[in-house]
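Q&A log
Question type: sequence-to-structure
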Amino acid sequence: MNGGDGKMLHIVMFPWFAMGHLTAFLHTSNKLAAKGHRVSFLTPTKTQSKLNSFNLHPSLISFVPLDVPRVEGLVPSDAETTADVPYPLYPLLMTAMDRTDTTIESILLDLKPDFIFFDHTHWIPALSRRLNVKSIYYGTVSPATIAYTFSPERGLGSKLNLECQPLGFPPSTVKFRSYEAKGGEAFANSDSGSGVSFRNRMMGSLSDCDAMAFKASKEMEGPFCDYLERQFRKPVLLSGPVIPDPPTSTLDEKWEKWLGGFNKGSVVYCALGSESNLNKHQFLELVLALESTGLPFLAALKPPAGNNSVEEVLPEGFTDRLKGRGIVEGGWVQQQLILSHPSVGCFVTHCGSGSITEALVNDCQIVLLPQIGDQMINARLMAGDLKVGVEVERGEKDCWYKKESICNAVLLVMDENGEVSREVRHNHAKWKEFLLKDNLESSYTDEFIAKLQGMLY
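Response status: OK
Response body:
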């Protein structure tokens, strides 16, 4: 089917070499290909094998392999994505990506696409404009995050102050606290690769592209999208919220049996994402907080930095004390299936966008435990603006969460008769109904494609 009933589009995808970005761009590629449009997806050569299974339309989505240029200091020498290197070497990987510019030019000359979608390669708009290809900045974070952090109102020449909302920002609780702002400012001003600060890289991408696009909806983030359009004087296109596809597998028998032993809505599930990097102190505060709720819990957590397993970090006697009421699992678990299990009543999440949506389309209460930049914005949006969950109070001095704060937030949302619990349940139910509306994703995709087609005339 040709979404938009106009010109068949050919789009090149060029995401930052991180699995979260690659899979997000591929998800959008699938939505475009489902409507009959063609995608050429640029990916590091060896990484393609990790993406093949996510390509639902191989006749329309073609992977174009890229050799990652060697950069002095980037080890291992065959590194391709952020999964291959420690965090301090990310700028060197970005430098390598910047050095693909002549290869990208050759590919665009050969393919002659209508559009190129990109995110961190700020030089793409100037290159593509020379070749008569439209450039779309495609954000893997929320419009609210970009609007708050990179508004032109903050002024490139001035000292960055992220503690205050930018001038003209929509009425919102979205705001960094002082210690969060300091971390955000340091990151924005740091070298992101090729000697370019992350702030300058982002401002170049946003200012020079032909349009911005996000995986978001106007119903949830409309004011931030309008603000971006006014600030950057260019279209902001929305491809719609990412609704998880119904799982094709069933829950492992181990978890089905364990969860089945508890009452409806009584279990707390905690997961902080695949890139979470807690230290031992933070890890212990979290698991002891879950224990102190007195509720059954399943915590899917990576071992703290420097440890090989979660078992070696757990306090002495912890497992015996719980007697099966609580489990700390260090490996991968089927999050979507766990969240939809009737026994699960609360989800303690790091506020990654995927986890937020998975929480909203289920019935569990939401406790927000953000750790880095865009997760903070997501947490304020969910707890403050939409009021669908409760954010855990954080210690000002060590910038981490105290055991008591985590426990209190969980008990607050799990108290069915409490005022806060009633409010977040009511709002959660409203947004769940919206997200699960028939044809929501499809209608957003049609409108997204129609707006892309309109940019070509």
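Response note: The first strand starts at residue 10 and ends at 14.
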